[in-house]
Amino acid sequence: MMGIDEKVRKTLAELGVNDAQGVESLFAELRKTAERERAELISRGAPNQPQRERFCKALRDRWLARKGGFLSQVDENWLKPAGKDLKPAVGRQFNELRRFTASLEFEKLVEALPLGSVAARPAPRDLTLPGLRRPLGSIHPVTRMQREIEDIFLSLGFWIESGPEIESTYYNFDALNIPESHPSRDDWDTLYIDSNTVLRTHTSPVQIRAMEKYGAPLYIIIPGKCYRHDNPDSTHSPMFHQIEGLAIDEDITFADLKGTLDFFAKKLFGEKVRTRFQPSFFPFTEPSGEVAVSCFVCDGQGCRVCKESGWIELMGCGMVHPQVLRNGGIDPDKYSGWAFGLGVDRFAMVKYDIHDIQLFFQGDVRFLEQF
Ligand SMILES: [Zn+2]
Questions:
Q1: Which tens digits make up the pLDDT trace of 236-273?
Q2: Which of 54-68, 108-122, 341-355 has the lowest mean pLDDT?
Q3: Which residues, at least 6 apart from 52, have a Cβ–Cβ distance to it below 8 Å?
Q4: Around ion ligand 1, which residues have CB less than 5 A away?
Q5: CA 310 to centroid of ligand 1, rounded, Å
Q6: Do the Cβ atoms of 133 and 193 come closer than 8 Å?
Q7: How far away, in angstroms, is 312 Cα from ligand 1 center?
Q8: Of 140, 249, 294, 326, which has the highest C-beta tally within 10 A?
């Protein structure tokens, strides 16, 4: 909507006003604005005399300055160019506006504006005044990415499960078949609270908690924050976001895993992308794999987004290790399952072409406004 500042710079013809009624409502809006700005000034008060004079002069000039004040602009742009048929109406309204805005004369404002501490004095409230406009926020790109991923799995019948970020070494490591000697248990990777408690290094401990709580069959995804002893740089942050997926049922095979993740990649990046599975190793899955997707920007030709390789690494995955099922209280002779884990921040960086993970966590409105 056009503000008053803008309207007074245009002619009535440019504003599409061509009858007395239009003129009347236009001037009514102007009077209302004058009234509101005066009331806002008075209710704010002034901490001292120089400030009081400065505030009053600013409002007076805005409306009544001979050069550039609203009234002189109305005279110049509305009254003078008005056609014969509208002139009487505009003239009448203009005179009324002049009488009305006499309360914006400098001396009158100074008289009305109270001195004193602004905080100490409760502002009088006029509930008929229009509200102040507050800018709307937007959804953080990482949250947006997380919800997009969640939606795909929710549509497949998975549900969302969560767990504590301060976790025992049992759930974070032992129950997931990560032995005492594994390098990720080293202080350099893990933030320890005490010798038995860590800030969870992945969302995987919730796998065990969910198995204990629900048993099988189980179809869940686990979004959440994770923590590692990493120095912040453009691709590392000591706090980051993961989504874990877990499916446990009778007769679950690697083919189910491939089919589900291929479906997921096509939903997220477009129908034409292809997925690639390569063998890998994780202590909690056997066999384990890394999934990549053909670059959705260059379709595998090689570009900046895929670092000229044609492929974008998506996540680690695999068939849940029988010992992990056993640790969760599930019989590996009856049930089998697959799991995956992906970095939400990295997904958002790829999808929105962002080159520095730190931007997500600095809270700079200029960055966040773009989403
Ligand atoms: Zn590419």
A1: 999 999 999 999 999 999 999 999 999 999 999 999 99
A2: 108-122
A3: 46, 110, 113, 115
A4: 295, 297-298, 303, 305-306
A5: 5
A6: no
A7: 8
A8: 294
